[in-house]
C-alpha cells in the first residue's frame, strides 16, 4: 500500500484545535495533519484525490 502524506481531520461544523499530544502522534508517524471543518475537509480531500495525492481523511458529522 502507498504511504499517506497528509491526513485531513474534519472536526464537524467548525474548526477545533488538535491537542499537542495528538499532533505529536501524527508527527512521530511521519504524517502531515490538517485540521478543518468537515465540509472543507471533504472538498480538499476530493480535489487532492483527483490529483492522485496520497491522502486520508477522518470526518466528524456536521
What's the end-to-end separation, in Å? 30 Å
Oligomeric state of the chains in view: single chain
Tell me roughly what share of residues is in helical segments: 25-40%
CATH topology call:
Hypothetical Protein Mth938, Chain: A
CATH architecture: 3-Layer(aba) Sandwich
For the secondary structure, the number of strands is 3
Question: If you had to describe this structure to a student in words, what would you say it looks like?
Answer:
There is one protein chain. By secondary structure, this protein is an alpha/beta fold. It has one domain (6-59): MTH938-like (Hypothetical Protein Mth938, Chain: A, 3-Layer(aba) Sandwich), CATH 3.40.1230. 35% of the residues lie in helices and 24% in strands. It has 2 helices and 3 strands; from the N terminus they run βαβαβ. The protein has a 3-stranded parallel beta sheet, sandwiched between helices. The chain is flat.
Describe the structure using short key phrases.
62 residues; Hypothetical Protein Mth938, Chain: A
Layout of strands and helices, then pairs:
Layout: E1 6-10, H1 20-28, E2 32-36, H2 38-50, E3 55-59
Parallel strand pairs: 1-2, 1-3
Give a short synopsis of this structure.
35% of the residues lie in helices and 24% in strands.
Amino acid at each position: 500500500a502507498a504511504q499517506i502524506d497528509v491526513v485531513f481531520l474534519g472536526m464537524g461544523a467548525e474548526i477545533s484545535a488538535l491537542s499537542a499530544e495528538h499532533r505529536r502522534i501524527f508527527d512521530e508517524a511521519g504524517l502531515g495533519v490538517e485540521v478543518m471543518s468537515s465540509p472543507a475537509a471533504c472538498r480538499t480531500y476530493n480535489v487532492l484525490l483527483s490529483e492522485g495525492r496520497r491522502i486520508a481523511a477522518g470526518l466528524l458529522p456536521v
